Amino acid sequence: MFSKGRGVVILFLFLAGVVNYLDRSALSIGAPFIRHDLTLTDTQMGIIFSSFSVGYAIFNFVGGMASDKFGAKLTLFVAMIVWSLFSGAIVLAVGFISMIVIRVLFGMGEGPLSATINKMVNNWFPPSNRASVVGLTNSGTPLGGAISGPIVGFIAISFGWRYSFLAIMLIGFIWAICWWKFVKEKPADSVSPEAEIAAAKEINPSGEKFNLTFYLKQKTVLFTAFAFFAYNYILFFFLTWFPSYLVDARGLSVKDMSVVTVIPWILGFLGLALGGIVSDFFYKKFIKKGPLFSRKLVLVTCLFLSAVCIGFAGVVTTTVGAVTLVALSVFFLYLTGAIYWAIINDVVDQSNVGSVGGFMHFLANIAGIIGPTLTGYIVDKSGTYTAAFILAGALAVVACIAVIRFVRPIMKVA
């Protein structure tokens, strides 16, 4: 898995995830300061959180298509430069509208990341290892979320919240330069034409050429995207509102909150790193049942457990209980993190995997548009976070049922 330059690819993709979530979660850590300085309500803050996903969701699809057409290396290089630039640009914000504009542009820059990671993994690794590699590379994202609390919290308290965004902008620029210099689009010992044909037949036994629009209409793609939507709804709820929940509902100081938020992220890092390995283990163990059996087994079990934990987190009476349940929810949630992409790799041919993966990610990240704003509205109207926790859990339960019922191997009907 790590031979012949593949270890370098894994390392850089892992670090891209770290930078991505360091940038993305910085706003939620700095939210108490920003909300005070710019005089924002909870509903306005929720809209600002959601505005990121407007640009992000659209460019999930655009970035996936770009990775198929122009290559994953170039697409991710440009994406990193753009999102780092607009991460730093948040220091120019003077109010509600300027925050929205900057966050939409920032989201556009981050949008291509996951689809380009999936495309690079598809370029460099065989099917039997892809879920493991997707899990390992994406496990950098919760690690980035974990370190953002102490980093952003310390800088914000010591020097002001604006300086934290400038610091992480520079980190992104350094990554982009190194990525362009040291990483190739495909390995020198790229898969032979015969092996590519064999892999294509495993996905599509008939050998018939499927176009992009065919894949975009398939229930397997659409309901995998729905499950990913539920995943993202819980993730964005945690990513955007959990720090404010700890300060507002549990009475923690910003300093204590910055430390406490590390706990769920560390468990998320372990979950995402292990999720793909677990899936590939079952992939090999139940190979006769087909690849989707093992993917669904992990996805449904772990997403359901995540739903139960996040739902109960909203009704417990102690801070320790709430943090523990949220941490467990994030752990089980991230165990499924590689599975959505593995399903796309299992059922889509290589020439369309970036575009289809980007489309799935686009649909899934509509949750990032709806969820934070809806949560802010619920909190403003009810004065409590309880209903928001329960709603997140219920949505994931429905998604589990949909995966069991509708995710099947893709076959073209005559």
From TrEMBL:
Pfam families noted in UniProt: MFS_1
Domain Major facilitator superfamily (MFS) profile: 9-411
Chain ranges passing through the membrane: 44-62, 74-106, 163-183, 221-242, 262-283, 295-316, 322-344, 356-379, 385-407
Chief localization: membrane
GO MF, one example: transmembrane transporter activity
Listed InterPro entries: MFS, MFS_dom, MFS_Na/Anion_cotransporter, MFS_trans_sf, Sugar_P_transporter
Membrane-topology descriptor: Multi-pass membrane protein
Keyword Transmembrane: yes
Subcellular location: Cell membrane
Keywords of the record: Cell membrane, Membrane, Transmembrane, Transmembrane helix, Transport
UniProt key word Metal-binding: no
CDD domains, A to Z: MFS_ExuT_GudP_like (cd17319)
Cellular component terms per the entry's GO annotation: plasma membrane
Name of the molecule in the record: MFS transporter
Organism per entry: Heyndrickxia camelliae
